Amino acid sequence: KNRGGVTHMAALASIVAALLAGGPKFTNPGLSSPSAADYAESPIEEYQPVVTGDLPSRQSLRITETLQVVSKVLSAVASLAFTLGKSTTSASCAPETVMTSSGPVPDCTEKLLQGTRGLLVDLDGTIYNDHGLLPGAHQFYHWADKSRYPYVLLSNSGAKGAEGTQAKLATAPFDLTSNPSMPPVPLKNILTGAMAAADFLIEKAKPGSRIFILQSLSRYGGIIDCFRRVLERRAPRGWMEKMEIRTYLSTQDAKIWARDAVRGKHMTYVALAGDGDIRDEEDWGYSTWDYDMLQKAVWIISNGGFLVTHARDTHNPKLAREEGFEDVDLMVPGPGTFEALIKSATYPKAIDRTFNTGKGGNLGGKYMMDKAMKMLKGLGLREGKDRVVIIGDTLDTDIQAANDFGIRSVLLRSGVHTEKDLLYYPGIRPTCIADNLSSVVEMIRKGRKLPPPKFGAPIPPPAPAPAPRAKTFEPPKVPKIVGATNKPASGAYDYITEDEEDF
To answer: Which of 389, 429, 459, 500 is deepest in the core (most CB within 10 A)?
Structure first.
């Protein structure tokens, strides 16, 4: 009958949904994803062969089925309670205010951003998009460079490190300097997902480890960069020689790597390091994603290997400008899409052997956010996290990283997500929303010398978010092949898609 009752019901439904999402091994109710602390004592420290026959007990399955029913009932009751109480519940915010599961999200103001003394700025969708620089990019860089304002360009890109990013930001149409007198973006102000994933491998991989790299290349201004090159630059002398690093595996080699991994002979990693499509012109082992490539990765990971990724981004925005397609959103599948595919194919065997070091990932706090804070300190930041703001365009990476790390965040409407997407990401909440970087820079510039604002308790939500379905995976059922010609029946398919008639 009242908003408080709806809130409690929604909270209970969320807890049950979280238990379902985690399954029998779930140990952190209420968290959307494991934190870095949960992986402090990870299987990497003391490697043990994986027992592939470890399945949940019948009792665990009965509990899961019961929780599914309870979750559906609670969600239905909460929704009904809110519907019946709408007529008696007064509005808590203006009609145009965006609501999330934690309350309203306002447009950015000087007051919300005052006291900011350090910035973490996303690149794709914030500084630039596929067609060039976005409004405010030049203004931000000129101001930050002239005033020596502490900032770090924080990108989830797995195809380039600081050198490759610097080259891109000095190449049209992404040139931030705009005139020859301005220096290129300093390397000390850049941190990427490739650098974070490389640091993870350098820290965790023991001598004799095997690393299978699936990477894409970055080429700007004559500078070619890729994950293997980032790994070489960041690794201590002699580290690379102690590892077996491959960017291509034959089918037989992949089977051998999987066999040796499950028998505990070698710690084995699959490093997914690309910004969507993958290619390796240096090795010529592959030129794009295909079934064979995915199969090799799945073999290794299912048999004791570790999956290391750098970004949760499921897609990259790309708005076509060709005649006749001006309003078509031709999004490009991102690295998160392929991570999800591999995780589904290896579930539940590799449920505790997947590590994402990018913004919003289960180890992003340690390998991205902690390092970014240290970089800000080295650039002159004297205050703590309450004086830092992250600016980005993606809810489940930029904003999720800010929420997990405990800092303020700005969601820009210039990239992947807008306020319309907030309802689909319950629990992820930006401090405020803005149109582009230009307006945010002006607000921060005016209020930088003021103390940061104090935030009270969030306003309860008006309605619960729909509870997610239990995390299950069933392999597809392949229809029988019929007919003397050995062609599939209507609607039938196989795992590998082929068309010898059409090519």
So the answer is: 389
